[in-house]
User: Fold these one by one.
Assistant:
Number 1:
Amino acid sequence: MWKNLKSYFIIEEEGANQPAAPDLAKPGPSPKLPAGVKKNAEAIRVEQGKQGEGTTAGAVNDRFVQVLMEAMEGVNLPGFDYLEYKKSLQNLKKMNFNDDVLYRTAYAAAQSMGVTSQDLVASAQHYLGALGKEEAKFGQALKGQESQQIQDKETRLKSLGATIQQHQAQIKALQEQIQKVEAEQKELQDAILANADKLAKTKADFEYTYTLIAGGIKKDIEKMQEYLK
């Protein structure tokens, strides 16, 4: 069912580019990491000749689409509501109506069932609220991943730095041990960068997918409020 619901918001055509998200979903700088992690990651990038954090472009991610669609399905209201209205809009788009005719024509079916424009806007806001809850849950999950995949490794990295300083003050017999620790340090540095980039991409994919869907709902609300009076 979620794939059917997906088709109301994301139209996929073979050989075509993925649908553009609203302006609020334009790719921007990578999500900000915690201060300590960001500082350390920047230092590592400078060491490796990679200045700055760069940008991470978001894309529609089916895994996130499924989560968001199922969140709306889980709070599906009985009877003809915004989701049914959205389906009518999608079916009518092939007729190349302008927005005024498109929204009013789809609204005719709703009126025949006793549904008002206020009912449609309220139900659209109801689903937008369900998406907002998923966004909050994603934020919490991302924080947990940051702790597990970045902060713990950063703590270990700092510990290894202290170990290196201690070994550098010791006699040459400890040089072999220092080299082993340095190798582990490099491995952790690479892991931090890889995990930071992976998390940034995951966040960007979610935000792009979320804003594409949520932005569509918000646009529909604006159109309904404008045309369905």
Number 2:
Amino acid sequence: MNRKITSDKNGLARDVTIFDVAEKAGVSHSTVSRVLNNKNNVNVETRERVLQAMTQLGYVSNVSARSLARGSSHVVGLLVDHLNTGYMGEIIRGIDEELEAHNYNLMLYTTHRQKYKEAAYVTKLTHDFADGLILIVPRNEKAYLETLQQRKFPYVLIDYQGYNRYVPSIITTNQKGGYDACSYLIGLGHRRIGFITGEMAYGCSPERLAGYQAALAEHGIPFDPELVSEGNFLQPQGYHCAQHLLSLPKPPTALFVSNDVMAFGAMEAARDLGFRIPDDLSIIGFDDVPQAAHVHPPLTTVCQPLVEMGRSAANLLLKYIANPKSEVERVELSTRLVIRESCHVPRALTE
């Protein structure tokens, strides 16, 4: 609870407010608010003065005080590195729907792919008022996983194939998805298949690459490193990688791309270079975001159950919130190939 001070005009006790902290620290109330919300536009000296004033006055934010009073905030923190793909949107939709059904609210933080922000936001959420934490494709988990485990703070990771496999997480069959995509192209008659990976720092990227390589090996097709180009899951890089592969002296007749967003970029690059899809070039994506069914031609892709991934993560987190001592679960959901119109038998086999 908040400490009381006796500073009103009638000499009666009242709660400490940010205005009291501002007066004590000699700053504006908006500066106190920026410190409370961990904004960057406060210099170190001022921030320290505000924090000292809070300590001296016994200030506790109203939200935190209410959380302490009732033992739960019914708020779940969610960390993502961006919001600019259907992949994120669909997973977040699943999380939000499940939390709403259980009367929980969602607090979203976006790191913009900056590793230091991920650790900072985890610290803020776990020391502030969130009951639990969900992270989608974490980038900097080594900085805080051990602390979360020691504190027994409820958390779940989504699409995580990192260094520590004994953490609460929701994953999919990435390697099988890569294998299925490449096998499908081989079944159509393609033998020179280019692959645009995701950012290899993410665990799902080497797993999809391993699936691609396994399919080639099973069908006796030598792996050619020249046909592999590393992307970053964003559309401009999909365009750039496809442009590189399709400009080779002997370009591939098909491309397997590690996510749909990069596949959209690859389709654009192919058209700019004069390739017709699927007559001259077949393309397969990964994720099955809503836009994949509406591009031209509709994109063949490996479906990840994105909404279900979000719902499963929320359900698992609520279980840990109710009982932090619950056994660690690593839930694996199945991928499946969705065949549309972006793939065809190689032209050489039809002439």
Number 3:
Amino acid sequence: MNAWLEPALHLIRVGRPVVLVTLVRTEGSTPREAGAHMLVADDAQWDTIGGGHLEWRALALARTLLKVGADTGPCRLDRLALGPSLGQCCGGVATLLLELLSVSDLPWIEELDAALQNRSARIRQRTLSGALKGSVAGAVSLFAPDDTGRGPAAARMIQTAGVDVRCNLSEHDGHLVLTEKFEPPALHVVLFGAGHVGQAVVRVLATLPCTVTWVDERDAQFPGYLPGNVAVDATDAPEAVVAQAPPHSSFLVMTHCHALDQRLCQAIFERDDFAYFGLIGSRTKRRKFERRLAARGVAEHSLERMTCPIGVPGIRGKAPEIIAVAVAAQLLQAHEQRLSAQGRARNIKPEILRLSGYEDELVYAD
């Protein structure tokens, strides 16, 4: 979710260095996936790389780097066996990159933050010296994913090989190169209805890697405070919001009016490129809507793509908060299934080039 960006910008601007911890490679079972981040200051932390002894060790290493970074260099790389080294039952191996960030890093952090705010992706590359033979400055390069002509050679190699570039630590020209992709959340939810359930859903989605367009013509229904990933559209023409939504959006329809629900359903079926479409209601409501929508020309195979009742099966509670959790879980399920299908279609490989030559000792990169 890149929650480390805002505190990093604030602290560096006021002259306080911080350490960015990145889980750059995983082997076997680990608490988090490669690409997880944690930001560490001398008295606080943001985000998580999985908790437990791994995170405790990372915090200790980061705060040591905060104290002695000027003497040892701005980066260090650690390969930690979770079982032998840390006593965690996961049993895998986690490779961590720790980067001491200061005012010299502001340009690329500010550019990254601005790009993500504008829903644009960026690829970051840092070349690490001291890890293998040779010496290369550990500067950060930042570029757009489609700018392959001007991008760093290691990133171009990874993209050409068809590798998922979300986070890769690879050998290139005798050096270790971290290449990772930062992009706005791929899950975009268009939520119609600002009643009790809609408000509960927004509170849950505020904690997840997604963006939300929240629609209701009743402006007074929206709370005074909105999460950073939520944008309100108080409109008298909600069907137009359906047409304007980005491709592959996920739609949730839970308004105060059945007639409006039906019009929204019709509009969603007309665009037919949604990633998920959920309609709040009972099985009886579904049958009535299916008959009415079929009479208006919606094909049977399209009607099968509508989820109603909504929420993961097996959760029977009807309190708004319970519905919200069940719906959020279903949205995540549908999103993961779509990402998996895309990966299979592109034949993406999960890794490139082995990481070799490390034991449990740390390696400094300057």
